[in-house]
Specification:
Layout: H1 6-19, H2 39-43, H3 78-81, H4 89-101, E1 124-125, H5 137-140, E2 146-153, E3 156-162, H6 172-184, E4 195-199, H7 211-228, E5 233-237, H8 239-246, H9 252-255, E6 260-263, E7 266-271, H10 274-279, H11 283-291
Parallel strand pairs: 3-5, 5-7
Antiparallel strand pairs: 1-6, 2-3, 2-4, 6-7
Amino acid sequence: MSSPSALQQLEQQQTYLQAMGVQRWLPRQVLTNAPESAEWVAEFVWPPKEVVEIDQTSFDDSSNIGSVDPRANLADRPARALDVRALNPEAMQSSRQAALSNIVIDDASVSSPAKATPVADTAAIVDESSVAEEAPLPERFQNPRYSLAFIPAGDLLVVDSLPPHARDAINSSYKKLLTGVCRSIGAEVNLDAIHLHHWPVFAGPHLNQGGEEAQNAVRRQLAVALKAHPIKRILLLGEPAAQWLLEQDQSLESMRGLTFSLRSGVKTQVSYSVMHMLKLPEFKADCWRDLQALL
C-alpha cells in the first residue's frame, strides 16, 4: 500500500483541525518583506475537489446552511471559500472600513469636538499637510474612558488599546499575537513588564477625571516608560493609544502610514490594535505594512 501524498496529508490534517474547531488561515497575497510561503499554500483549497455522495435518508435539512446541495460537486466551491476581496483592493478596503466601524474600543467617551488652541511641543508630524488641525483631546473628551497597555520590548515600546477596564483582554492568544508582532520587527517583548493604564483611575464626584487630567496621566506614564527603558521606536496600536500618546484628535485611518516623533530620535508608527487583529485576522496584513517603517 503506497503512502499518502503530501496533498492527502494536508487534507487529512485539515479534517482533524476542523473537527477540533481550529480555523486555519493561509496567505492569499504576497506581502512586502514577508517570508516566502510554501508551494502548497497557493494550491491548497478546502473542501477538496471531489464529488461527495451523501445518503439522502441520512441528510438533515437543518444543517443545510445557505441551501447548498451537499451532493453537488465541490469543485466549484473553493472560489467561494476563499476571500475574493483580496483580489480587489478597493472592495477589500471598503470591507475593512465597515468592519472597523463595528469594533468600537471606546465609543462612550466620544463627544462633540470643540475648537481650542492646540497643545504646544507635543508630537511632531512628518507629513503635517495630511493631518487636519482639530481641537486638543482634553477639549474633545470631557469624560474620557480608555485602557492602554504599555509594553516594553527592548528598544521598542508598544502602547496598545484595550477595551476600557478590561479584565481578560491579555490572555494567551493576545500574548502570542503580540509576541509575533514584536518579533517581526526584531524586538522581543517583555510580557512580565506589561503595565496597564486605565482611565478614569478613581470613581467619585469630587475627583477631577476630565480630559486634561487624562492627558497629563498619559504624559507621565510615557515619561516613566522612556526613562526606564532604552526606547528608540514606539508602536501605537489602536485609535485611543494613537490619539492620547500623539495628542491628535484624528481617526486611526488618518494617522496610519505617517511617521511621528514623540521624542528626538524616537520614530513612532500607528497601526491596528491587537484586539482588532484577533477579531479580524485580515488586518494583520495591513499591520505588517505599517510596521515596515520600524524595520
